[in-house]
Structures
1.
Amino acid sequence: MDTDIAALTTVFTEFYYWITVALMFLIHVGFCMYEVGASRQRNHMHTLMKNSMIIPLVTVTWFLFGWWIYWAFAGGPGITGGIGHPAPDFAAYYVPWSDGMGPRLDDRISGVFFAAFLLFAWTAASIVSGAVIERIRSFAFWIFAILIGSVTWSIDAAWGWSYGGWMVELLGYHDAYASGVIHAIAGGTALGILVVLGPRLGKFAADGTPRDIVPHNPWLVCIGLFLIYTGFWGFYVACNVPLATTGYIDGQLTGATQTATTIYLTPTTLGAITMNFLMSLAGGMLVAYMMSKGDAFWTYSGGLAGIITASAGNDLYHPIQAMIIGGIGTALMYKLHFWVERKFKVDDAVGAVAVHGYAGFIGLVIAGFVLWGHPSSPYEGFAAINPWGQFLGAIIMFWVLGFIPAWVIAKILASLDLLRIPRQVELLGLDFHNNREAEAARRTVAEAMRSDSVST
């Protein structure tokens, strides 16, 4: 730190990312509450622990290889450059045995930046967790958590959510607040698992008509979603670089003052994204309230879908655009959720595929049209934002890196009988080993079965 200004900037940036980590922790708390509230009482502890174990599993694997993948795979590798392109020194710096992964007085930023990205990884895995409650084996889910948290999300962020990512350079891909790189890939991953996992017992009638399995505790769902909203403030802020100078980005950005930038190093302000966050939340909630006829679960979920839809371009939209786009994405995801449920018998327990996956996909496509021609990067030679690049990017996020890997692994686990819990356990409840009420129910059922066999 050569000057007082440099020292102040460094300390501010360090504290900035540290605060975002604390706020984003609330997203995970919210997901745990939300899922427990949506599950039935006999499955509460299984639901809670299945999600909670994301924290140690993804943290360790993110340290061992997830963080390195982000810095190593921006060029493909082999599309616009080799491993480490465009900054091979960074890739070497972030291997787990490097000095860069330990405490250093001359590097105050890497640790908190690592943690912010780790919380993004937790979020991606938690999104998947809600969709598969009440029937998946914990072991199987934890494999998927590591897959998305430390592998596929790391790859998609390297490709489409870094200043040198090949998707940004060649496609003009723009996804400032992660409609695709977190939400679409998580929705696609969840869908890939669900089509193999199958619905919960009793979800569909004999004629295929879906039944509504209502949340056990709507208040817990409500509080959980509001905590997710709160954590999203940290999520949005963590997507920015708090202070950058023209020299920091090689002089391609004109102007002499320091500015906040997106992950692509394009200028933005906290004021702009704050207004757009609130307006997209409002658009989503209003539309969801009307379409669901005041259903609390879908109203709150619609607010989240509104934010997710507009997130791809919320650094550049006008607030009225953010509100309208949030409303459009919410309406489409709501219709798609029930159409897919009826048509393909997909049981998405909390609407995660719709709220995150469909809304994220739609948001990417809309951004391509609304922001058509706008620079995707401050660097010369990068493609401008365009509909085709955004649509192809959405395909890569949802299907190529989301659905396909999850579907393949789900098929392998299912073939080994490691994906889904036994039918008898699902009927009695996943908590019956440590839940007295469920254990009593198990004994009652067993005695009734013995009585029936004796009487016959």
2.
Amino acid sequence: MKLKRLLSAVVSVSMLSTVALTGCGSGDSSSKSGEAKASGDSSAAAGGESKAEGESKSDTPAPSGDGEKITVWAPEDVTALTQEKINAWLPTSDWAGKYTVTVSAMGEGDAATQLLTDVEAGADVYGFAQDQLARLVAAGALSAPGGMFLDNVNNNNDSGSIGAATLDGKVYAYPETSDNGFFLYYDKSVVTDTSNLDTILKQCADKGKKFYMDIQSGWYNVAFFFATGAKCTYQYDTEGNVTGCDCDYTGDNGVAALKAMVKMAADPGFSQSTKADAALFDPNGGTAGAIVSGTWDSATVKGFLGDNFGAAKLPEFTVDGKNYQMSGFGGFKLVGVKPSTDSDKLTFCHALADFITSEEMQMARFESNGWGPSNKNAQASDKVQADPALAALAQQLQYCPPQGQYPNAYWTLTEAFGTDINSGKYKDASDADLKAALADLEKSLKEAK
């Protein structure tokens, strides 16, 4: 039996149920994550910089084949690589000569917006930021992988990226990266034990240095809230409107998180920084012993610290004798397949998405663009393991839920609350006072639109 027939048999039943294609408004909600450190939009939410909509670069190879046209959307900085690899793969597949694949430049955030505006006009296979998953599913813009394709997703990728591709227990997309989030950079001449926050703070203070973190940001201070088991998530309709908020910051878990932040803010080894970046390690005036940041700072931190460069997952913190592993938001890139009533075309598009997110392709993007793989074999490769920042992030993402969509008001409210923490407003507050403050915050967060 031809492979394509076998694949059609295992995927077509589960996918043809999603063929209703409806146009939807794109909405105007904002996501804040990625290299912009909680100041960007959903195009940055999955890690790395996303390019605006446009044509492929002039040096992008021409598509091979003369069959039915299939369109792939990929970020501009990997368009040429993606086209080149597909051109090499397609003649070896069971669909050689039947389809022609054209890769066009489209950023992950822009792809979701285009698909939500007009599903039928969108690409057959496209990359998108994980915070757009729910809206794409609701719009009928995703055909879920099944059969061997689903097995590949579940068997080959880390749990965080699989979670990012999953909604209500069902996998809807293919993980492509696992590389956006924050972790610990440290100077090995200052910090020798990264296991506990109190220990790091003491080591920094003893050497006249500081531990820098932006607790005045709702992107970073979830490291404490999520660590204790508190939660705050939002639900959206396909037009980008907030339909609900699940937040329980007022409970004991929220109080524990707030107590930890209040304690840290008052510690002589801590310093708030809204831009906790690599420059803080500059030997000419830099005062950092450790910072919380992401892969975007890796090369510069390494340049400043040299042999004293260190990277690790975030530490645990202790509240009332109990230890909690610091958490955070996880950001991932995903690849989706648009539904189709043509079962052979649909199966080919799933095979194409499977290839685009394969170990081979993830390693190629790592080597050419520094994208962090979600594929477990790629993560375990010598080349990726030799990158201490990506290795640290991979460890940290095990403790981080995928970031969903959050309204603009969320970022404003959490920034104001973090500013109060940092100013010492709650330094001598009782647990009851902390719970009351959290109740006010939770109420406002639930009203955010």
